Structure formats: C-alpha cells, structure tokens
Amino acid sequence: MQRHPNRGKRQPITYNGFRRTMTTALKAAGITDFRIHDLRHDFASKLLRATRDLALVKTALKHADISSTVRYAHVLDEDVREGIAALEIAGTPVKRRTIERSIE
Length: 104
Fold this sequence. Notes:
By secondary structure, the chain is mainly α. It has a domain at 35-103. Helices cover 63% and strands 0% of the residues. Helix 2 (37-51) runs antiparallel to helix 3 (54-61).
C-alpha cells in the first residue's frame, strides 16, 4: 500500500477533514444525534453567558444581522430562571409573575 507523501506532516485543517474525523469519532463513541453546527451553537451560548454581549456574539459568529444572533438570548433567560430558583431555595420570596413577564 502506497502512503500519502504528506503523511505525518502538519497540514491545515480542512472542513472535509474535520468532518471525516468527527464522523469517525462520533461513530466510535456511539453518538448519533450530533451535528457539527452544534459546536457553533455551543460556542455562541458560552460566549454570551461569559460576556452578556449580543453584539460581541454577532461579530464572533459573523452574522450580518443582529436578528440572527437574538435566538441565543434564551441563554440569558435560562440564567435568570436559575437565579430565581436559587433565591427561592435560599428562602428569599420572589414575585415570579413580574419576573417571568420580563423574560418572555
């Protein structure tokens, strides 16, 4: 069997090469419901949680319009809900209707 002349040398990562590697790894791990785009969504969600800045996420994802980025705002809504739950566990009364209306 003849080997590729660049075998073992560092090469730029191509989309197809990455996709092939991911497909192989996911198959070996038995993961069937994963898309490469899920990595982009995960990155955007984590960046928004860390910065709270939709404009920054828009720039990082190279969205032409902020309306494409707004779909990630649910991440902030989840944080608000978790914060409310933490307050209630700590025994602090919370007016849920007012807060829930503000995050809908």
